[in-house]
């Protein structure tokens, strides 16, 4: 049913997951910084939106890079 990954594809996937994990950690730190700088309400919501869009963009770029090589 599922497709079998080659060693190269598996290596790329592991690298992509590691990069994504690093990016999520970095963005989480940035979110903490934004929360401390911005007022509650709109400021926190804006920070969450920015981080979420950043994570989405990072995931999209990594997945595209892995599967279009």
Describe the structure.
The chain has one domain. The protein has helices at 7-37, 42-67. Helix 1 (7-37) packs antiparallel against helix 2. Helix content is 83%, strand content 0%. It is mostly helical. It has two helices and no strands. It is elongated.
How would the blueprint of this fold be written?
Layout (H helix, E strand, L loop, with lengths): L6 H31 L4 H26 L2
Helix pairs in contact: 1-2
Number of helices: 2
Approximately what portion of the residues adopt beta-strand conformation?
under 5%
Q: Characterize the largest beta sheet: strand count, sense, and whether it forms a barrel.
A: none
- What is the helix fraction of residues, given as a range? over 70%
Global geometry: elongated
Domain module count: 1
Q: Please state the CA-atom Rg, rounded to the nearest Å.
A: 16 Å
Task: Tell me the total number of β-strands.
Answer: 0
Structural class: mainly alpha
